[in-house]
Design a protein that fits this description.
The protein has 331 residues and is mostly helical. The chain has twelve helices and two strands. A two-stranded antiparallel sheet has the order 1-2. Helix 2 (36-68) crosses helix 7, helix 4 packs antiparallel against helix 9 and helix 6 packs antiparallel against helix 9 (226-251).
């Protein structure tokens, strides 16, 4: 049945194109498309770009889970809010009409403040009351629906793009190509991910974050202010989500539900890389992005996310803790 779904549309397409093929003048040269190698290289470039954007958005989600073991279903809305806030400052008639660069920086700051406000206003009081993780997870679903529909009311349903860097000519990379905008987004994303790695490994607050993620009680007994660390993680997660939203809206388009569409791939990235591991989220997201784009070489574009999730299932069958996750005893 699966092969029939591929074969029947292909046969119908051939039958539709047959009259045009038969009326082609004899001896007329048939135009050739790009070779498979060129298409594969282009898909790889697009996959790396897509993967690093997913990685930026998923690192904060992974750190939140690592520190307080909460699956934040509303994280996708942080991505959307960052993209639409920058759009308001950059394009909207009611906004100040800033250039995209300062608008993106303002969106990152707004995302950090939003993450801190949500932690102080919702999650910290719930933890103080002893609310269970399942109940808090349900709250994240409700918060996600609330934020998504607030964005829908304020932004609307019409997709739009930023005022700058919209249409550009490509830079040749052998048989493939990339626009200066996409190249800049990819390089900036890699630099941000490297900066996160340096933050976690070389700074006191990064060491405290890793200590809380490893053993919260031991970290608190060692004198670490756990509440301060958790607040920092939420603010960092909000800032990264907003930045990833701006990057995703820049290379794709800004929509009111863009973060929700990206959320499943974020979860796939952090599960594939290893729950609670920031580095695992980076590696897993990169794998998800590359597989999603490379699958379009053989299968319809509509199925690219499905194949990425299939790779997730196959890897977890072999390594249940994920690529960089630690195996734990059960019982």
């Amino acid at each position: 049945m699966r092969y029939q779904r591929i074969f029947v549309p292909a046969l119908a397409l051939v039958l539709v194109m047959l009259p045009a093929i038969s009326t082609r003048a004899q001896g007329e040269e048939v135009p050739r498309g790009p070779t498979f190698a060129a298409r594969a290289l282009q898909a790889l470039i697009d996959g790396v770009q897509f993967g690093v954007i997913i990685a930026i958005t998923s690192v904060g989600l992974s750190l939140i889970f690592g520190t307080i073991h909460l699956i934040n279903f509303a994280h996708g809305e942080f991505v959307t809010i960052g993209a639409t806030f920058a759009f308001f400052l950059n394009v909207s008639a009611a906004g100040p009409g800033w250039h995209l660069i300062p608008a993106a920086l303002a969106a990152v700051v707004f995302g950090a403040l939003l993450g801190g406000a949500v932690e102080r206003g919702i999650w910290r009081p719930l933890r103080a009351r002893g609310t269970g993780l399942i109940n808090m997870f349900i709250v994240t679903i409700g918060l996600s629906l609330l934020l998504r529909h607030v964005v829908l009311v304020l932004y609307g349903t019409r997709p739009a793009s930023y005022a700058q860097y919209d249409i550009q000519s490509t830079i040749g990379l052998g048989p493939a190509g990339i626009t200066p905008r996409d190249l800049t987004v990819t390089l900036l994303s890699v630099l941000v991910l490297l900066g996160i790695a340096v933050l976690l490994q070389k700074t006191r607050i990064g060491t405290a974050v890793r200590a809380v993620a490893a053993n919260r009680d031991l970290a608190e007994a060692s004198g670490i202010d756990v509440q301060r660390v958790v607040l920092f993680v939420w603010m960092l997660a909000g800032a990264l989500a907003a930045l990833g939203g701006v990057f995703f809206g820049l290379v794709e388009i800004v929509t009111w539900d863009m973060g929700f569409k990206l959320l499943l791939l974020m979860f796939a990235g952090i599960i594939l890389g290893g729950l609670g591991s920031a580095y695992g989220a980076m590696v897993g997201s990169l794998v998800i992005g590359v597989v999603a784009q490379m699958s379009t070489l053989w299968f319809p574009v509509d199925l690219q996310y499905a194949w990425a999730l299939l790779v997730l299932i196959l890897v977890l069958l072999v390594r249940p803790q994920g690529i960089l996750g630690r195996a734990e005893r059960v019982g």
